[in-house]
Amino acid sequence: MRLSELGEFGLLGELARRGLVQRIENDAARFAPDFVVTQDALVEGVHFRLDWTGWRDLGYKAAAVNISDLAASGAEPEALIVSLGLPRETEADDVIELYEGIAEAGVPVLGGDTTSADRLYLSVTALGRASRVPGREGARPGDLLVVTDPLGASAAGFHCLKEGIKSSLVRSHLRPPLRVVEGKELAGTAHAMLDISDGLASDAQRIAERSHCRLVIELERVPIADGVAEIAERVHDDVYSLACAFGEDYELLAAVLEPGRFTVVGRCEEGEGVVFLRDGEPVERSGWDHFRD
Amino acid sequence: MRLSELGEFGLLGELARRGLVQRIENDAARFAPDFVVTQDALVEGVHFRLDWTGWRDLGYKAAAVNISDLAASGAEPEALIVSLGLPRETEADDVIELYEGIAEAGVPVLGGDTTSADRLYLSVTALGRASRVPGREGARPGDLLVVTDPLGASAAGFHCLKEGIKSSLVRSHLRPPLRVVEGKELAGTAHAMLDISDGLASDAQRIAERSHCRLVIELERVPIADGVAEIAERVHDDVYSLACAFGEDYELLAAVLEPGRFTVVGRCEEGEGVVFLRDGEPVERSGWDHFRD
Known about the structure:
The structure is a homodimer. Chain A is an alpha+beta fold. Chain A is built from nine helices and twelve strands. In chain A, the strands form two sheets. The first copy, chain A, has a seven-stranded mixed sheet with strand order 7-9-6-10-8-11-12. The first copy, chain A, has a five-stranded mixed sheet with strand order 1-2-5-3-4. The radius of gyration of chain A is 19 Å and the shape is globular.
């Protein structure tokens, strides 16, 4: 069977079933007693376009998405390792800019391996130190669901880039936040935690599945970043589609008993799946999510 | 300036000068008090050809070259993280074979990230635990130079592949040794240590430069792997060219006071550079090294 049929998750499942890869249940994998490691690759034309993303922003983002996985594990980032595949005609100044962007994320780069490739291939490994990793399987009925900050800015920024709309939201798309402090704060007591990379709806589903419970999200309580509603209107999309379905906000979603300073968006109940409420009534995801059929 | 002019080492030097990457002086970089990390990428058409290397061998080799860097740091391997870029038409069975090859190296794979790419891109990060890392700068006049096992088998195997000669040496090229036990044994007391990836001559030069001393190697004492002399004759090359210049043997070279069970190939003196002796007389490297003008 070809990879195009099996898909990445199908492949990883098959590898894990054969014991060839440890099944990664969380954002980062544990090693030694106190460390976690995570790794993500960005490929030109697949994950980014150099005409939309400058080299510096690309470097920052590659670092940030990995640091976000550490944050979701309640880890303190210790080091990044960067593997770069580059066309031979790449300008050295562009690569230096890329590394300057990585450096802006504030975690030291311990190693850099550069090889020649047809197109830009950027793989970052992030190492962090964590004591308690909440994971995804501990959410329980009665837990409150919190997010660390408003959502939707990345989606709105993406639409601005695509439609050529000038807006400060573009920066939110290119420069995801680093929720390391929040992650460490929540990790001590959260029953489950992850970073919102695929959208609140999809990521909540992951916790629901692994924790065997139902996550109920009240759309009115979902905090929407400034300016997102206006962009949603301009691009004729639902604001909740941008805030709950697009993803790439890299805020944290956690199931907790005490919300502390974070925003409650819903709760955990007996049952399964993710339910969205509007004015207290369940709404189908297709009612607001334009990415969903 | 383009990368093709600056080169990988030029680029890394420039990045380190600007503080964007920590200068990697050894095979692996230290992080936290007791850990080392190393990373190497293999790109199809640059580092390997799939018509010479099967998927399983490729997986093994990608793991082995990284484990070798850990061995050179006296580290116990803890985990591998694998980043794969693959054309969409790749057969899933081939990828499973690749991972089976990685598994044969005996270090658990903690994570696997797979993305689509034009050609096969394989980046492995290896994590290990080390107490004392000898590094490259501590060799002193009076030290003996030892290698962990005979050299030249990888070069001979490469020639066999290239010339279509059937020989068990092919396996030595495709399946580099793992000198983890030897690395840990030597790390306690060695003044300098590295793995022979670029050939004894080039790698000895690295220790000479960093330790500010002269390394004197007696060609007659260099242990030659079985069958290498015969292949050297068949391909009209000097046996020492295969054993000291080709590289990819992945044996360890160490500067020590007591050789123990390892083979002495020379010594360390006041001075600089690497000197080769034959019958006690200095010989120019060009006299035996056909890779060198």
